[in-house]
Amino acid sequence: MTDLSQLVKAYDVRGVVPDQLNETVARALGTAFVEMLRESGDDAEKIVIGHDMRETGPALATAFAEGANSAGAAVVHIGLASTDQLYYASGSLGLPGAMFTASHNPAQYNGIKLCRAGARPVGQDSGLIIVRLRAEELLGDLDAVAGMPERIEHLDLLEGYAKHLRSLVDLSRIRPLKVVVDAGNGMGGHTVPAVLGEQLLPALPLEIVPLYFELDGSFPNHEANPLDPANLVDLQAAVREHGADLGLAFDGDADRCFVVDENGDPVSPSAITGLVAKRELAKFPGATVIHNLITSAAVPEIITENGGKPVRSRVGHSFIKAEMARTDAVFGGEHSAHYYFREFWFADTGMLAAMHVLAALGGQDEPLSHFAAEFERYSASGEINSTVADAAAKIHEVRAAFPDATFDELDGMTVHLGDGSWFNLRASNTEPLLRLNVEAPKPDRMAVLRDEVLAIVRG
């Protein structure tokens, strides 16, 4: 039997095309997805699909649609889309969805993010394993799927998506801002002109300076992964060159957004989480805000100071979204620049987070470097990956080196030290890696603690 365990990950489907993911596999996954929905009691009469700018996207999406048709489901195909545009489609149409993207992965990859109606996530604990097992069965007997007539309707939802986002954050009365946007040849080049520009809607008081807006899944300029500092260099230079108020960088499927200030210096995703949380709590007093355990200690402080209820979560969109739904949280933020909104079906949208930053900055007169200082309170290492042969053994070794610390194991091992410093060490789901995040009140203390842990991990 075909083994799809290396293709179907904890949160999504992702692999090399055509070695791991091809049209035959996509067709089987389309059938399996519809069957899983139906077996779990969901309405599976119709699903919505979209794809990003990767060359392999259209054929894979069409094959998936054929598989869904074979299982008796009609398909609404929205074509080129960002991942949050697909979530908009799932939420506004009330349909399960499939987004073909490999996010920030290199060009030879593609993948699928699945959701139930209302953009509710499908992960390993909410149906994805069932989809994998059923697809493996289907690939073992390709005659098991009966052909059905094609039922694929094409629908353009870009304007509806843009209008919905503009209804959530009013940018019409902010002071004029000059914004450099690096789309990384990804889907930000498709959505930014529609939402922040005047391609479809009235102009906003924004001057957009575009970088790499041409849709190109080969990523000719740099990887579409703004968490890697190497991929911010062009944006930082352009912000300084143009005297811009800020810069925005989107990842390949434009569901994540990274921010740099007027000096080209990065504003941490934790600071953006604090900033957006403060705005959302002003709108929804006393609400719950989710943050993952890697975000800065400043985040729960800011949430509490603004009358909200901070709730700590494991890393990963399926965990965040489940926790948001459970607590009816108004907002959620991750250290990886994923931002989730109750007003957006609890789904993540980098664009809406960017609009909150623009509204906050444009609603006062200070530059972003000054304005954001309120939300940057500690010194953080960022995520540092180390290749290890035995992750569990290394975690045990690190734990033994800090006998007086407080530990928790919500996600990997988080170690709290008495001086306000902490670190988290967790194993990758898919690679022989340990991921380390360190935070301390001062940079020198952070550096010492970081180096102490790394010496054990890499020793």
Please give a quick description of this structure.
The chain is an alpha/beta fold and 459 residues long. The protein has 4 domains: 13-156, Alpha-D-Glucose-1,6-Bisphosphate, subunit A, domain 3 (Alpha-D-Glucose-1,6-Bisphosphate, Chain A, domain 3, 3-Layer(aba) Sandwich); 159-170 and 177-260, Alpha-D-Glucose-1,6-Bisphosphate, subunit A, domain 3 (Alpha-D-Glucose-1,6-Bisphosphate, Chain A, domain 3, 3-Layer(aba) Sandwich), CATH 3.40.120; 269-375, 3-Layer(aba) Sandwich (Alpha-D-Glucose-1,6-Bisphosphate, Chain A, domain 3), CATH 3.40.120.10; 379-457, Alpha-D-phosphohexomutase, C-terminal domain (TATA-Binding Protein), CATH 3.30.310.50. It is built from 14 helices and 23 strands.
Determine and state the CATH class of the largest domain: Alpha Beta
- Quote the distance from N terminus to C terminus: 41 Å
Class based on secondary structure composition and strand pairing: alpha/beta
Count of individual helical segments: 14
Number of domains: 4
Biggest beta sheet summary = 7 strands, mixed
Q: Please state the average pLDDT score.
A: 96
Question: How many beta-strand elements?
Answer: 23
Q: Which blocks of ≥5 consecutive residues have pLDDT under 50?
A: none
CATH fold node name of the largest domain? Alpha-D-Glucose-1,6-Bisphosphate, Chain A, domain 3
Protein name: Phosphomannomutase
Family: Belongs to the phosphohexose mutase family.
Pfam family, one: PGM_PMM_II
Domain Alpha-D-phosphohexomutase alpha/beta/alpha: 6-126, 160-264, 271-378
